[in-house]
Amino acid sequence: MNDGTMIAPYLRVVPENRSALRFFTICARNFLPGAQILCDSVRRAHPGADFTVYLCDRDMGYDAEALGMDIEPLEALGIPALERMIRTYNITELCTAIKPYCFLREFARGPETGAGTEAGAAEQSPHVVYLDPDIELFSPLVEVAEALDAGASAVLTPHVLKPAERAEFADDHFLRYGIYNLGFIALRATEAVADVVRWWARRMVDQCIIDLPQGIFVDQKWMDLLPAFLDGVHVLRHPGYNVAYWNLHERRIHGPDTALQCNGQPLRFVHYSGIILEDVEQLSRHSGMFYVSNSFGYGPLVRRYRARLTAPENRRLRQLPYAFFWNGAGDSNAHTPGGGGAPAWRRPDSFLFARQAFSLEQYLGYLSAEAREIESQRATEAALTPKGRREAFEFTCYCAVCGGRHPMVTSFMYSCATDGEGNPIPNWREHIACRSCGLPNRVRASVHLFLQEFDPAPDSRIYITEQKTALYTLLSGRFSRLTGSEYFGNRVPKGAMFDGVRNENFEALSFQSESFDYLLSFDVLEHVPHPERAFAEAFRVLEPGGSLIFSVPAHLDRYPSTIRAELAPDGQIVHHLPAEIHGNPVDEKGGALCFRYFGWDVMDMLREAGFRRPFLYHYWSREFGYFGPGQALFVAEKPR
């Protein structure tokens, strides 16, 4: 072992052909440029190695293909307590809390043959390496692969390698923050290791916090216990690993760019922790001693790294807002300052936890994994529903549209299901109407998610496919450039006004191309005979990067749409099921015919129209009164 220490007794001699390493990192969307730099450096040092980014954020607003990385959404980790963790943790705490769950997912992939392994490795390696997204590799992690091949269960790097009584970060500092820096950890996928990682994951649910008086620093301090829990934990005392502001007093980087060294040994990786992009001289927000000019070879690397992060092509990604809570429920984040000034509806107490689903398989996996939670939801709904009578009833919820707690009205109108005792079950989707604003469940939830997830500016260009509604009136008071419409057929030309209301046909809109930032449509597309034409028109009128956001009646447990009626070429309507008529604000007597209940084939229609990675949010909330199975809001983004 070329780490300047004696061979540990649990390590055995291994052949020269080392096993491959698999790598992953964790970041929010705004740090994807940093993850890309890390990924590129990993691929240079370990050609062909698997590299995965676990996104601790909403899975939208970026082009994974253009970035050239395998990016996994937060939902893929199957964390049972995810909602609680999102509501509680700040960005630093949440990104570190999911780390053990990422290791477990990597372990679960197993030793399967794959094209992503390093040259010469026939099977997927059991060696999994985590690296922070602000790290850059400069040479292969030879000592890590050797240690794991030789029997080590884990590899850790200490913050410092020798006593540091007078350093800026003295050795007692690490009694509070942790002996080992968890910007790097390598684990061997064995059952004994997995058992300890599961313990670590359980602790991370509510104890991945920054509480130095209590001796806890996110996930990192817990790993001080790892050598007590596992045999064969290898402490890698190599000066070329994890070079950062906290150990610059004992590290010197030198040599040519093609063969950089640290203290006479190969430089393996540098950790640019706390880098300040706006300050070209300071190395880290956490250090007041070292600067670019006095950092012993570290400064030029920081300057080059900062230039790549701030390149013009990365500006849009770096400006993407964090979807959750930068400062957490405690409204503080001393480790990663920023993210202040969030609107009131971005507070944890008004946050709607909505899961993303990109495919039928992913959604069915949720139904299976969360069966007990779903059963509890149905029980909550049943407990609020009066038995033996059909009169309207009320209960109180928080209306995110109005911004307060109000009575919510529900009746049994449109009910089409009964419980085991024959009592009618409300059609929750069309009810739970707020006494204050009058908006029902599905509309309140759609507006809630639109504001929460997209943070539209007051002057955003928004088109909504309704105008004679309470929702249009409400939104017009908030957004100065809102355009609405209804469908009057041939009574007036498209784009013309009829009794002060604009006439538009969703299949042939009158707007110029690239006219809007957002197109909102709530329970309109089921009344459009050819939704694929409407999606093509939505794609046309949206700006690159714009989003189509819509709700429709949908069967989320099946792929094909249920076609209730079709418009024949001769203009006649062909019914496949009994006619279903919905309300229509411009034809209260005749209503609007429902042509279909959508299935997951709607995603194919959206992709064929040109949209990238369409998905849906699915949600349920007692707090906000969003009840009923299969509640969803669909989202499709036009590529930039």
Give a verbal description of the structure.
This protein has 17 helices and 34 strands. It is 24% helix and 20% strand. The protein is elongated. The strands form eleven sheets. A seven-stranded mixed beta sheet has the order 3-2-1-4-7-6-10, sandwiched between helices. A seven-stranded mixed beta sheet has the order 15-33-34-26-25-21-22. Residues 1-7, 112-122 and 341-345 have low confidence and may be disordered. With 640 residues, it is an alpha+beta fold.
> C-alpha Rg, in Å?
28 Å
- Describe the sheet with the most strands: 7 strands, mixed
* Count of runs of 4 or more consecutive helical residues: 17
Order of adjacent strands in the largest pleated sheet: 3-2-1-4-7-6-10
Shape summary: elongated
In total, the number of strands is 34
Percent in strands: 15-25%
What is the mean pLDDT? 89
Q: Briefly note the structural class of the backbone.
A: alpha+beta
Q: What separation lies between the terminal Cα atoms? A: 49 Å
Helix content, binned percent? 10-25%
The stretches of 5 or more residues where confidence is low (pLDDT under 50) are 1-7, 112-122, 341-345
Question: What features would you highlight for this structure?
Answer:
640 residues; alpha+beta; seven-stranded mixed sheet; 34 strands; 24% helix
Give the SSE map.
Blueprint: E1 22-27, H1 32-45, E2 51-55, H2 64-67, E3 70-72, H3 82-88, H4 91-97, H5 99-108, E4 127-131, E5 135-137, H6 142-149, E6 154-156, H7 173-177, E7 184-188, H8 191-204, E8 210-211, E9 216-217, H9 226-229, E10 233-235, E11 253-254, E12 261-262, E13 265-266, E14 269-271, H10 298-309, H11 315-318, E15 354-357, H12 360-369, H13 371-384, E16 393-399, E17 404-410, E18 417-418, E19 424-425, E20 433-434, H14 441-454, E21 462-464, H15 470-476, E22 482-484, E23 497-498, E24 501-502, E25 516-522, H16 531-541, E26 542-551, E27 562-563, E28 565-567, E29 573-575, E30 581-582, E31 592-593, E32 596-597, H17 601-609, E33 612-619, E34 632-637
Helix pairs in contact: 5-8, 16-17
